[in-house]
Amino acid sequence: MMKPGLKGVIAAETKIGEVDGLNGRLVYRGYEIRELTKERTFEEVAYLLWYGKIPEPEELLQFHRLFHQSRQLTPVMMNVLDALPDNMDMMSVLRTVLSAEGDSTYGWKPTLDQAVSLTAKIPTIIASRKNTLEGRPLIDPDNNLSHVENYLYMLHGSLPKAEHVRALETYMILTMEHGMNASTFSARVTASTESDLVSAICAAIGTMKGPLHGGAPSEVIALLDEVKQEQNVRSFLSQKILAGEKLMGFGHRVYKTHDPRALALKEKLMEQEGKDEWLDLALSVEVAAIAALEEHKPGRALYTNVEFYAAAIMKAIELDPSLFTPTFTASRMVGWTAHVLEQAENNTIFRPLSRYIGK
Ligand code: ACO
């Protein structure tokens, strides 16, 4: 039987993560996502996805050294970055510059050290490109800063606020891994031919670039911008629903109950209530929107999705919209590379069939 888009087909077994849409659960290697965002750093969760366990303090120290010292771009990558036209979008820049890292040391099989090294370089590529386009000097990565802190530091040229780091870090932990999504599948298909890790990741970046996948929270930002001007938010949102519009940032195809990533982000934002106008606005808009949805769409189980709070975070940390999908890429690198390593452990080439309906 043909399954368009391979919907409902289980194409691999994985020990990396579980997406349970019916019960609203997301699990990384046996740990509930909210447990991880409450207590763990980006580095600890990346270690968990790559090595299969939470690191001991000594292991974490060693890992910090390896991960943080891999941020510097190679001379070849810098040359390629310099040669790219100004009108190339950031996802294409990431794909092209990362590709320049694919020398002969990247053969079959992929290694964990390669995964760590490539992931460490993504924020440096993004920040270097952004600074070059804006005519600012390049900012060297600071090895004393954490992965997320250093990303914001290289982008803005100053040390970020602790609450902004924690908010972005929570988002980046939540988006590291999400089962057999299109880009992860792409990476595994490429790896299944015994191709190298750089090629698998370039395939994944190309897949993530499409608007049906790397969806940015820009439309939620437009909603928050509109709502900001309104006196009566609930009645404004009700009118939208009655006019047949979808409220951006609400509802989800897979999660038919709360999106666990939205809950975890909200929890983090509530710790910072009163410290940022966008975060406060999002918290109050959610209350009005849920009330309006319950009134006009009763029984549809519509809740906030991860994009809703992601938008508030992006606004709060003043991240340019052109960086939303690249930032998602920076976190998903961990999931992609973990999947490629898993694919390599027990490889079967992906080779589905097609049914001929031509002449
Ligand atoms: N606002 C208002 N009404 C909504 C919304 C919404 N955000 N979402 C669903 N509904 C209504 C629909 O109009 C429909 O009503 P009806 O029964 O009267 O026809 C009912 O709820 C069921 O909606 P469907 O579109 O069938 O639900 P589905 O699960 O197919 O769609 C989707 C999910 C596409 C995400 C939808 O909820 C939506 O468009 N949301 C807004 C866009 C958005 O936030 N996208 C980001 C998703 S998260 C992510 O991609 C990481």
Automatic annotation (TrEMBL):
Indicate whether Transferase appears among the record's keywords.
Answer: yes
Catalytic activity reported: oxaloacetate + acetyl-CoA + H2O = citrate + CoA + H(+)
Q: Which GO terms describe its molecular function?
A: citrate synthase activity
InterPro entries listed in its UniProt record: Citrate_synth-like_lrg_a-sub (IPR016142), Citrate_synth-like_sm_a-sub (IPR016143), Citrate_synthase (IPR002020), Citrate_synthase_AS (IPR019810), Citrate_synthase_bac-typ (IPR024176), Citrate_synthase_sf (IPR036969)
Q: In which pathway does it act?
A: Carbohydrate metabolism; tricarboxylic acid cycle
Which PROSITE patterns does the UniProt entry name for this protein? CITRATE_SYNTHASE (PS00480)
Q: Name one Pfam family in it.
A: Citrate_synt
What keywords sit in the KW lines? Acyltransferase, Transferase
UniProt xrefs under PANTHER family? CITRATE SYNTHASE, CITRATE SYNTHASE, PEROXISOMAL
Family affiliation: Belongs to the citrate synthase family.
Instruction: Please give the name of this protein.
Output: Citrate synthase
Q: Which organism is it from?
A: Sutcliffiella tianshenii
